Amino acid sequence: MSHRRNLLTASIIAGLCCITGTVAAQDASGATAKPQTAQEKAEAAKAAELEGITVTGIRASLEKSLDTKRNADAVVEAVTAEDIGKFPNTNVAEAMTQIPGVTIDRQFGQGDRVSIDGTDPSLNLTFLNGQPISQTPWQYGAQPNRGFDFTMLAPEIVGRLEVYKSPEARLPEGSLGGTILLHTLKPLDLPANTIRGSFGLNYNDQGTAGTRPNASALYSWKDANNIFGMIASIQHFEEKIDRQGFEIFSYSPVSKWAPSPAVAAGIANGTLDPNAMVPDEVNSAWFQQKRKRDTATLGFQIHPTNNWDIDINNLFVRENFDNWNQSLYPFTGATPGNVTSFIQGPNGVVTGGHVCGNDSPNCPAIAQGTFDSNIRKSVVRTSAFDLKSEYRGEGWKLGGAAGYSKARNDNISQAVMEPVYAGGYTWDINRGFNFDNPAAARDPANWHMGDVDGLGGWPGNYGDYSASSRDTYGQLDFSKYFDSFFNEIAVGYRWNRHEEGMQAHVYGGNAPTNLAELGTSGYTDTLDAFGGALNGSSSHIIPDRDAQYAWVRNTNQGREDPGTYLNGTYKLVEKTNAAYIQANFAGGGFHGNVGVRYVDTKTDGTGFNYSGAPVLPAPAGSWQTSSRTTKNWLPSLNVAYDLTDDVVLRAAAAKVIARPPYNMQVNNLFLNDSVLTGSGGNPDLKNYKSKNYSLAAEWYFAPQSYLAITGFYKQIDNYTVVDSANETQFNSGLQNDPTTFARQVAQGLCTPDGFCTYSISRPRNTGSGKVRGGSVSYQQAFWDTGFGVTANYTYAKGTLDSGGALPYNSKNSYSVSPYYEMGPFSARITYNWRSKYLAGGYIAGAPPATTADYGDLGATLGWKLNQQVSFTLAGMNLTNEKYKQYLGVTSMPAAKYTTGRRYMASVHFDL
CB neighbours (10 Å) of residue 129? Predict the structure, then answer.
């Protein structure tokens, strides 16, 4: 493994510490007057929207974000376009980490799933220009959910964003923690003939050598009378994802290995606890991906008259997620009689041992050194169209909107094979494994895939999934203004139709082979970040990627697996009708709103429901639909009081709902026949319901500065958790992988007719739960020195009344970001940390795992050559933090990964 490239990291940190410049006075504006009437509020909102786009500089952008927060009626956080650009980030989620209560998950290094105030990312909805954007999964075996995948959005297309932590009746329902509103740039808010662009290079010090390019270009035009405008942009982004680490799929008690004389003797003499847990395997995992994203936007803005606005927005995204996932795991659990020794560790966990193989004369069976090599193709295409119009009369306003969004992934495919090495090995729970005969293990002729009787292996199969998603919506809003305490009454109606569908196909019958016949591409050189990793894990043979894909595709006999199609194919249609009335008020230092939203939701989930062994064609009448209708009244109240010119007090209360993820509401099933795990849905799930309360005090003690304390309490009913239970399912390995299936029968895991005991994870309603906590946020520009800081801390304790933790709930999280900006220089350091949290298992059917504390350090340096050209250098994950998961206790690790340090160098122009 080449040495770490730490020079760039050191350069960034040194630059941040050593930047100096002439201290110059900076204009300091006074406190912003609070708009009171409906007309003043509308004008202030428009001004904030315009200025949030045109401001430049860190301090100016922070001030505009504060203006949005301060003038809001609800509990709102905001990020402007300049903020998004000044943070080290490759997508919008990574720019949101400075918001109090916002945490993100980084399983693949990038931030992709956003939690708000300790709630599951799937329970927080995101809208672009008020429109839901359809999504489909990119990972093979993954299922769609409601949480927004922020990796799809280029930061360049977002002008500003707001996070509404307390709902208003006018906002779409469906969020438990908060609603995220993203807004694209508008042409009439920009100077005519605006041209902006950038070009940069991305580098990951853990990936293969070389950089990946990114570029963007934007053009905006409007006529001299500010009546018609057009804006268009294109972006291209590439990044290497390289994730290396260890995984443990499952644990079993020592008693499972009682057929081994050594284990039986240890149990008998008391040196082994029969109930101690043993990893069934310790996997050396390597995920490689060259992620590509192409984005195009086209927008039009028309003002036919001074009081009539028309906005048209179009979005097109193409993402390539092709990847290669390699897993080499000596399968201790597959050969119980081969164990020659176990090391009893603390806390009831066996931490190491030895397993004999065919290189030991008296070994009862071959060992199972399984190499699971998965070459995957995945291209997601997303498009969206949205039309909005608003007409303002004398004392009234009428608005309407309609939009359509579609996402599809026509080929989520996988070409998989599993060569097996039959020799013995030593394993360690934290360091991996070593083969007894390293030279033999590095010989490709010893890695078999059904070509030699008795030496195991599987020549694999070809899986081909397709997924699609569609959203169509229409909305009508009417407001009447009054010169009184209640200055606006707003009513509206929204209709939305969401369609979700997936088809699953797996084709078997590949020809037997071995790695010598197939071809190899050398040896791995991984796990350098894990000091002491054993050589068998870090430097092992790998198949030739192109040869593997060609073999699987060209020798496949096309025998479709009935179970995959019947269990993994489904359709869901969700139709909502919602109406609201909201009264806005202002006077005597008070401002806010009160309202109620009524929602009628009908969900039709369709899938195959059959009994016995799966067969094709599908049994007549097995394609069945389950329907469910819910009706909810959702009241809300937001009150703000200007205690002084600098202090705002807030209170909010609301009843909210969130709907379960789409795939959870249908009778689908995904099975892993090799390790007998799986995941499925539950058509009987109920909507989440919650009563949310918030209190806040905000002190705006200086320009670009504030201190705020917020408390929140969420009483949640019908909480859904995913847990695992044993189910009897048909194992397609009976036809597709008879060698592995015969071994499973011999171990008593399956019956000869094809049915096995699987650990299946399914969602279920577990009753009520609660999230209670608060946040402290602080921001200050230190006079005219150019230095400043933003920081926040959030405490969120989430519990189920029946016991246990809430998914994705970190009890503690904080963020701190000092910055410097003076003359042409700007610099910023960001550090985000979150405490442990419960997350879903990383393979289908794996029990929920706890993700350990995680911290991310990033930094950005900027130099403005002139008004038109600037340069930035950014670094992310500068400490190469380890992402760790464990099962209940830290002594039972489930996964640990590193994803490498990421660097971006860019040049920007603004003409």
Answer: 20
Residue 434: CB atoms within 10 A of its CB come to 18
Write down the pLDDT at residue 28.
33
Q: What is the mean pLDDT of each run of 10 residues along the chain (911 residues)?
A: 39 38 32 46 46 52 84 89 56 81 84 85 92 92 82 79 95 95 92 94 89 93 96 94 94 95 96 97 96 95 95 96 96 95 96 97 95 96 97 97 97 96 98 97 97 93 95 98 97 97 92 96 95 95 96 93 91 97 97 98 91 89 92 98 96 96 80 83 88 97 94 92 85 84 90 91 85 96 93 94 86 96 93 90 57 94 94 94 93 95 94 87
pLDDT of 514: 97
CA distance 484 to 38: 10
CA distance 690 to 167: 12
Question: How far apart (Å, rounded) are the C-alpha atoms in residues 779 and 58?
Answer: 12
Residue 777: which of 878, 697, 679, 718 has the closest Cα?
697
For residue 840, the model assigns a pLDDT of 63
Q: What is the distance between the alpha carbons of residues 895 and 244, in angstroms, rounded to a whole number?
A: 10
**CA atoms of 410 and 106, how far apart (whole Å):** 26
Place of tokens 């390597």: 286
Return the closest-CA partner of residue 658 out of 570, 577, 720. Answer: 720
CA atoms within 13 A of residue 853's CA, in its CB half-sphere: 8
Token pair 């590193």: residue: 898
Instruction: Give the chain's largest Cα–Cα span.
Output: 95
State how far the Cα of 93 lies from the Cα of 102, in Å rounded to an integer.
9
- Angle, CA of 276, 282 and 283, to the nearest 5°: 155
Q: Shortest CA distance to 297 belongs to which of 282, 311, 281?
A: 311
Residue of 100, 29, 35 whose CA lies nearest to 812: 100
- Measure the CA dihedral 841/842/843/844, to 10°: 50
| Residue 889, φ and ψ in degrees, nearest 5 | -125, 150
DSSP label at residue 749: S
Amino acid at 839: A
Distance CA 819, CA 817 (A): 6
Q: Where are the alpha helices (DSSP H) in 259-299?
A: 261-269
Do 233 and 218 contact (CB within 8 A), yes or no? yes
List the helix and strand counts (H, then E) for the chain: 13, 50
From residue 497, give the alpha-carbon distance in Å to each of 468, 576, 606. 14, 7, 16
Strands 126-128 and 179-184: parallel
Say what the pLDDT of residue 89 is.
61
Residues in the chain: 911
- Measured between alpha carbons, how far is 829 from 378 in angstroms, rounded to an integer? 35
Question: Distance between CA 71 and CA 77 in Å, rounded?
Answer: 11
Residue in the structure block whose two tokens are 């703000």? 640
pTM of the model: 0.88
Q: What is the signed CA dihedral for 9, 13, 15, 19, rounded to 10 degrees?
A: 170
Q: How far is CA 263 from CA 245, 259, 270, 318, 731, in A?
A: 29, 8, 10, 54, 30
Q: Answer whether 512's CB lies under 8 Å from 459's CB.
A: yes
